[in-house]
Write a structure and sequence with these properties.
By secondary structure, the protein is an alpha+beta fold. It is built from 6 helices and 4 strands; from the N terminus they run H-H-H-H-E-H-E-H-E-E. It has helices spanning about 5-30, 35-45, 60-75, 85-95, 120-130, 150-175, and strands at about 100-105, 140-145, 180-185, 205-210. Strand 2 (about 140-145), helix 6 (about 150-175) and strand 3 (about 180-185) form a beta-alpha-beta unit.
């Protein structure tokens, strides 16, 4: 191989190596780093267009909407452990149709202390909940564990971890405690039921419990 050909080959190989590194870095960032904008978009209520004339499509039952709003008010400013099993299930049922996002926030082993590597994700969540589009709305912060350990242990641990997230958000970002309802589900509601030990099951779910969408202007 000539000197010029070898130099061109080395240059091309260097470009390919740098490109591969940048590609892998981009994939890691996309997988690991949730942004404030992504959280805001996931939790923002769908905007209802302002229309004139007859409405088309199914309409919400006013009585059901009122009952839901009343229930949400009863669980605000409650301690996590004060929620009954039926109240936890009611929250889970309502959350299915609400804007929500799952965050893989990790904690120190056998602890409710937020791990150092997850602090940035919790800080991003705090910024998102402080956004004008989300501020002063009621949110559920639900803790989930994987399938390791007994039910009672996991239930208590998930409650403590949800409380830890709430405490951080209220202390560091000034979010009103009455706007954050904490609930623990232990290992009872895995994200991947076929793989109960999967890391995806160890998560914090945030749900926007507001029952009215904002009309677009």
């Amino acid at each position: 191989m000539s000197h010029i050909s070898r130099r061109n080959f080395n240059a091309i190989r260097s470009i390919m190596t740098v490109g591969a590194v940048l590609s892998m870095t981009g994939m890691a960032l996309a997988a690991d780093d949730v942004t404030e904008d992504q959280i805001v978009k996931a939790l923002a209520p769908a905007k209802k267009p302002l229309t004139r004339g007859l409405s088309v499509g199914p309409q919400a039952d006013p009585a059901a909407t009122a009952a839901e709003g009343k229930f949400v008010q009863t669980i605000r400013n409650r301690t996590t452990r004060s929620l009954s099993v039926s109240e936890r299930e009611e929250i889970a049922t309502l959350a299915k149709d609400k804007p929500n996002i799952d965050l893989e926030i990790t904690f120190d082993y056998n602890s409710a202390d937020i791990s150092a590597k997850s602090l940035s994700a919790v800080q991003t969540l705090g910024k998102a909940l402080s956004n004008p589009d989300l501020r002063a709305r009621p949110f559920v912060v639900a803790g989930h564990t994987d399938g390791a350990g007994g039910e009672g242990y996991n239930q208590e641990l998930s409650e403590r971890r949800a409380d830890s997230i709430k405490r951080y958000l209220t202390e560091k970002f000034g979010i009103a405690g009455t706007d954050l309802v904490t609930v623990g589900y232990g290992k009872s509601k895995p994200k991947d039921a076929n793989n109960p030990m999967d890391a995806a099951n160890r998560r914090v779910q945030v749900v926007n419990m507001a029952n009215k969408a904002t009309a677009s202007k």
